[in-house]
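Sample entry copied in:
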Amino acid sequence: MLKKDKTKRKPIVLSVDSDYISQVYLRKVLKRYQYVPLLAIDCKEGTDLLDANKTIDICVLDLKYPMKDWVSFLKKLRSKSTTGEFKLFITGCKSTEKFYEKLAEVKIEPSCVAGIYEVPDQYEIMFEKIHEVLGNGSQESA
C-alpha cells in the first residue's frame, strides 16, 4: 500500500486527451490524491512524455484519435514496461472488440486494461478505480 511517505515515489498518471476541461479536472483530482499528473493533448505529446519519464503507473487514454496514432502510442507504452506493470484506463472507445484486437497486435495483455469508461458520466467511477489500482483503497468521491 502506498503511503504519504517522502521516501516513496508518488504514482505517475499519464493522461492523453484533447479535451482541455477533462484534463483540468483530472489534474485536480490526481493532485488531491498526491499523484503526479502528466497531461498530453495528443498521442505525439503522450509519446514525448513516455520518453521523458522512466515510469508510468497508469495511463488514461482517449481513443478519439486516429487508430494509427493510439496504436503507435500503445507500442511505445508497452516498450516502457517489460513486466506489464502499467494499467490502462480507456475513454472514447466505440468498439471494444477492435480495441482488444489492437491490444493483441501490440502484445499488451487484456489484464493491463483496468477499465473502459464513458466520460464525463463515469469520471467518479474511473477515479475510484485509479485510486484502488494504485493501492490506496476506497476514498471519498472526487
